[in-house]
Write a structure and sequence with these properties.
2 domains; Alpha-Beta Plaits; two-stranded antiparallel sheet
Length: 301
């Protein structure tokens, strides 16, 4: 298959199940809501060494938030069901509670299977910071916790759903300039989609990894098959002459449908950039996860 002269390889990406929470962070204005959202989702690119994969989902105007203030939806993906409560509570406590003018609420609005959703405590635990001065807001599930600029409002609990992590595709380009332009176009194409994140810096991955390493103490290492400087050094290299840059785009989403749509939109945007040689995807021959998405079946055109 070719689109705009760019080869789309006949392969698939491989995603895996993960538990996720979607939290709405609001503030007095968009500036402070964004600061809180960015800090809260920091150091959360890969579950290989981070406590979660997290990023901003979408900006929400005042008419789309619980308290009619500007906000951002953020998403946290965690493999271990038992750990997600602490991950989310710790990040909200350290980065939202402390940020000027902010409040936070549950924002889950879809998952793979609503029957397996469960709740984690956020405000119900963070309220203890109020040192018995905290108060439940009458008629709501929200707490108000006294802080030095007024009160921090936080919903008592948030829902956790089951989603898909690790949906991906790889952009193989002739040089770094065209590869990065294509990657940026891919991320820009999904910026208004809800229930989907790309957790790496700016949504773009340059240090793709493979399972295992020649160093016994590492569980993952550089994906030498796609490193241009290793084309003649690595026996596993799949790069061709003229393939001098590879960027990976990874998606974590609430449902299969949203992951596949993000892949489709991202690829369609990438192939419009001159200098892209081909599009492929990362997989482990079906051994990593049960969600297999074939590039040729995404409805690309």
């Amino acid at each position: 298959m070719e689109i705009n002269g760019v080869e789309i390889e006949d392969t698939f990406c491989e995603g895996f199940g993960a538990h996720f929470a979607r939290i709405i962070i609001t503030a007095k204005n968009q500036k402070w809501a964004k600061i809180a959202a960015q800090v809260t989702t920091g150091y959360a690119t890969s579950t290989i060494h981070c406590d979660s994969e997290a990023a901003i989902d979408v900006f929400l105007p005042p008419d789309k938030t619980p308290d009619n203030r500007p906000g951002f939806a953020v998403m946290f993906f965690v493999g271990d069901k038992k750990k997600i409560g602490n991950v989310v509570m710790n990040r909200l406590g350290q980065c939202v509670l402390t940020c000027p003018t902010t409040s936070c609420f549950d924002g889950l609005n879809g998952s793979l299977d609503p029957s397996v959703e469960f709740e984690i405590k956020i405000g119900d635990n963070l309220r203890y910071f109020g040192d018995r001065f905290e108060e439940k807001i009458e008629g709501t599930a929200n707490w108000k916790i006294p802080v030095m600029d007024g009160e921090f409002i936080c919903q008592g609990a948030a829902k956790v759903g089951k989603g898909v992590a690790g949906g991906n595709f790889l952009i193989v380009a002739k040089d770094q300039e065209s590869g990065l332009a294509a990657a940026e176009a891919s991320i820009d194409a999904i910026k208004d989609m809800e229930n989907i994140i790309s957790p790496f810096p700016g949504g773009v991955v340059r240090a793709g990894s493979k399972v295992g390493s020649k160093y016994s103490f590492l569980g993952a290492s550089t994906n030498d098959a796609y490193c241009p400087t290793l084309r003649t050094k690595s026996e596993t290299s799949v790069l061709r002459e003229g393939d001098n840059c590879v960027y990976e785009i990874i998606f974590d989403g609430a449902t299969e449908e949203v992951v596949k749509k993000a892949m489709k939109l991202g690829i369609q945007a990438a192939v419009k950039v001159q200098g892209v040689n081909r599009i492929t995807a990362g997989n482990y021959n079906g051994k990593l996860g049960k969600f297999l998405y074939k590039l040729h079946e995404l409805g690309l055109e």
